[in-house]
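Input C-alpha cells:
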C-alpha cells in the first residue's frame, strides 16, 4: 500500500503495481504543510480522494477518515464514511483507534462500507499519546494492542494498519488475525507494508523523516535541479527554443505590418475579421 493524494500521483502508483492506494490524512502534512494531521477536513479529504479515484484503474482506493469525522457519533461516522463512497467513489475507508472505535467500525461495516483499522501510533491522537512514539513497548501495552487488533477484526475490519509497533508485537498480532496486517514502522511480520508517497520518493525536502522510511529515490533534489535549469535558461534566453513556439500561417507574416498599420480592431469600419486559430498548442 502507498499513499497518494492527487490524480497524477495515483496514476504513477497504480501503474507501478501497488495493490492499495491510501488517500491518507497525512495529506495535511505532506501537501498542506500542517504540523499534524488534525486540521484536514472531510471536504478536503473528499477532493483528494476523488482525484485519486480518477487516476486509479486497478488498485483498491482507501479513504482516510479525518480527525473528528467518526468519533462524535456513530451516525455521523456512517454518514462521513458514506460520503467517501458516494462522493469520491473510494472502495473502503480507514479509521484510527482500538477498542474505543469497535462499535463504530461494526456500524460502518453493517452499512456496507469496508473498513480498514489503524492501531499503534495513531497520529490523530498524538497529544493523548504524548508525541510520535513507538507504541506497545511494554508487555502490558503490547497486550492492549493485541486486544485492540482482535476487537477490530471481530468488528468486521477487512485489514489493519500497524504503525510504529515493535516487531515482536507485530508478529503476535499478525499470527492471531485472519485479516491482513499492513505495517509502517512495524517490522517485517506483516502481510503488507505502507509508506507515504513523498517519503518513498524523497519529495519531503528538509522535512522530518521517520527512521522507518526508506527513500527509493531523491525526486525532490531532481525537481530542484530541473527548476534551477529552467530559471537559468529563461534568464539566458535559451528557453523557449524555436521548437517550443508557433508560426503564423504561410505568407501572413509579410501581411502583418500592413495589418498593424490599420485602425485598431473593434474600431468602427476597420474592415478586419478575426481569424480562427485552429492549431493545437
Ligand atoms: O495518513 C496516512 O498516510 C496513514 C499511513 C501512514 C498509514 O495513515
Amino acid at each position: 500500500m502507498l499513499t497518494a493524494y492527487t490524480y497524477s500521483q495515483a496514476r504513477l502508483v497504480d501503474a507501478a503495481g501497488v495493490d492499495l492506494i491510501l488517500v491518507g490524512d497525512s495529506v495535511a502534512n505532506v501537501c498542506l504543510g500542517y504540523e499534524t494531521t488534525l486540521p484536514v477536513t472531510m471536504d478536503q479529504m473528499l477532493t483528494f480522494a476523488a482525484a485519486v479515484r480518477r487516476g486509479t484503474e486497478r488498485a483498491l482506493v482507501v479513504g482516510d477518515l479525518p480527525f473528528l469525522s467518526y468519533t462524535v457519533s456513530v451516525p455521523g461516522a456512517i454518514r462521513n464514511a458514506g460520503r467517501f463512497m458516494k462522493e469520491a467513489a473510494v472502495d473502503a475507508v480507514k479509521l484510527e483507534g482500538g477498542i474505543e472505535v469497535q462499535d463504530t467500525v461494526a456500524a460502518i461495516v453493517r452499512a456496507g462500507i469496508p473498513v480498514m483499522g489503524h492501531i499503534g501510533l495513531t497520529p490523530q491522537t498524538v497529544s493523548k499519546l504524548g508525541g510520535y512514539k513507538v507504541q506497545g513497548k511494554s508487555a502490558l501495552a503490547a497486550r492492549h494492542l493485541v486486544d485492540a487488533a482482535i476487537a477490530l477484526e471481530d468488528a468486521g475490519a477487512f485489514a489493519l494498519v500497524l504503525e510504529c509497533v515493535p516487531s515482536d508485537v507485530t508478529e503476535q498480532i499478525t499470527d492471531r488475525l485472519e485479516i491482513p496486517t499492513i505495517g509502517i514502522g512495524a517490522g517485517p511480520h506483516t502481510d503488507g507494508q505502507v509508506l507515504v508517497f513523498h517519503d518513498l520518493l524523497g519529495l519531503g525536502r528538509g522535512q522530518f523523516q521517520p527512521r522507518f522510511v526508506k527513500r527509493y529515490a531523491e525526486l525532490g533534489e531532481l525537481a530542484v535541479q530541473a527548476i534551477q535549469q529552467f530559471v537559468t535558461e529563461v534568464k539566458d534566453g535559451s528557453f523557449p527554443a524555436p521548437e517550443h513556439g508557433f508560426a503564423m500561417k504561410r505568407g501572413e507574416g509579410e501581411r502583418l505590418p500592413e495589418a498593424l498599420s490599420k485602425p485598431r480592431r473593434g474600431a468602427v469600419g476597420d474592415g478586419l475579421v478575426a481569424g480562427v486559430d485552429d492549431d493545437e498548442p
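The beta strands are 2-3, 20-23, 60-64, 92-94, 115-120, 159-163, 181-184, 192-193. The two ends are 38 Å apart (CA to CA).
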